[in-house]
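I'd like us to work through together how a protein chain folds, taking it slowly. We need material for that, and I hope you will provide a protein of your own picking. Go ahead whenever you are ready, and we will take it from there:
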Amino acid sequence: MATETRPLLIHHLDNGLTLVAEPMPAVRSAAFWLLLPAGSGYDPEGRYGAAHMTADLIFRGAGARDTRQIVADLDRLGVARSTAVDTEFTSLAAATLATNLPETLSIYADIVQRPHLPENEVEAVRQALLQELQAQEEDPRSKLFNELRLRHWPKPYAFPPTGTLQTVPEISYRDLRSHWERRYTPAGGVLAVAGQFDWDRLRRVVEELFGSWRGPEPAPLPIQARGDRVAHIELQTAQTHIGLGCDSVPYRDPEFLTLRAVLSVLSDGSSSRLFTELREKRGLCYAVSATYVGFRDMGGIVCYVGTTPEQADVALELLLSELERVGREIEPRELERAKIGLRSGLIISLESTRGRASFLARDWFYMGRVRSVEEILTTTEQLTVDDLLDFLKRHPFTNHTVVTIGPKQPRLPAALASPPPDG
């Protein structure tokens, strides 16, 4: 399948911020992702959720605008926007008409460099987050993924970016201001732009808006111990929720696309291995999936099975069996289906300016370069069954973490009843 080749444009600011841009002449819009090393991994001990609250507070007035004026101006410019906090970074994304890109960037330059950080708004920010956390607590599936994260990943990666119901009330205004002062820094940051723009003008605008910004170099995250690898949370419901985590390669690993192909064999669509074996053939569950979770230097997969208490034992046993079997046998037709799905998913996701800007930002942040669509498609198309099996021989889905929620704990296979010590 032929794809359009577009030039990648890169400009390094003296303060450590990198501008990465890709023109899309056929569109009339432009999007950007500003990705900063200000993630939740830097939250103070016992105050998890501080980065998340800071990302809300910076929009409550910045530069010459108060909260209402920021909202009014972004709406006037027709900006579709979002903000997200991950362990390693905070991202601010926006998409608008190409003609409105400079003014939109100007507003965001104020938001990250000159926020008012009003102390009288902190409680409103806190209460909004506590409501979100309470909703997660009352949703068994959301609770399951949070509990699995706490046990599978080492600290500080273990803590959900939203924090917890216990830690958010402990966060002070000083914690939020300190996070902004120390972590909202251009060094190590990425501003990715995709869409219609004039490169020379974009570069001048970015230099004018962000060139004088200064801040400390981002500090590496300290890696600490993992939690218990097996846990059950008793809850009197009609369902049992099973979550399972396994280690694998990080996003920037040269074999990441091989792992993506394996996951597509396992869990992409109703023809995938897990759906076919657990749901279609045996009716053991109403939902099953395997997804990737990755950071700069570590990665892994998270599996989910939603079933009944009566079928939970067999469902967990079969899930483990399928994770082991995929390392022994993969049919050529399964790989071909995976390639088609990956190819179409990639092209569809990158047809939008927002999708492309997100891809540019993440690639640069994690890899220090941006892969072309052609590189990804070619690498994926050249994968063979032997490539996947060889990868799984070297990176098997073992050393599991298992968390379950339901009226009783499913029977654990021997390998899980006494999990290996954390390495």
